[in-house]
Amino acid sequence: MSTRAALPPTLDVPDGRPSIEQVWRWLDAVADPEIPVISVVDLGIVRTVAWVANEEGDGGLAHPDVTCVVTITPTYSGCPAMAVIAESISLALQARGIARVTIATQLAPAWTTDWMSANGKQKLTGYGIAPPAEQVIDISGISRKTSGLPKPRLVVACPLCGSTHTALTSQFGSTPCKALYRCEDCREPFDYFKCH
Strand 46-53 relative to strand 178-183: parallel, antiparallel, unpaired? Predict the structure, then answer.
């Protein structure tokens, strides 16, 4: 556990419970288990944070009448890291003095790489993983005349040297959400976080 997670909670609202903004800041320190350089907030997995009144009134000693509900969306159906992420979120908030934490899973709308923060994409690059090179496009408005056109070649920049002279090696990299590329200039292989 990090020293930051062991600090006592900063209580910055009148009733003594942490503000929603403070909870978001704490969640921003919870690392993704597969890519530890990026937080679950930067990845866009955390959708909402809310205080919800308890019906039974036994929320614990710190805040007996409320539960902190954190809603998360999996990056893809069946992602094996989601159980670890949910547990990490609960433990991080409990370490800050929040006695009752509930993790809710929201499947719709489906997670998209568009939800990743710009800061998170920079962290991926610094870690040696190329971030998504395009945004997810809503194809519902595309006419039949243009939908058959070939998709333009995806330009993926090498996170190591910055070259765009790269080639796809495999549709699957170290995890299902990544593809394996090779840089034709520095000759190094690297993961690309696929856009979806």
Answer: unpaired
pTM: 0.77
Please state the domain extents for the chain. Answer: 3-105, 118-193
Give 84's contacts (C-beta < 8 A, 6+ positions apart): 33
SS3 177: coil
Q: Is 141 helix (H, G, I), strand (E, B) or coil?
A: helix
Contact (Cβ atoms closer than 8 angstroms) between residue 25 and residue 71: no
Give first-to-last CA distance, the chain, whole Å.
32
Please give the CATH superfamily to which domain 3-105 belongs: Fe-S cluster assembly (FSCA) (3.30.300.130)
Is 117:37 a contact under the CB 8 Å cutoff?
Answer: no
pLDDT tens digit sequence for 90-132: 999 999 999 999 999 999 999 999 999 999 999 999 999 999 9
Work out the average pLDDT over 155-171.
95
DSSP 160: T
H-helix or E-strand containing 182? strand 178-183
pLDDT in tens, 76-92: 878 888 999 999 999 99
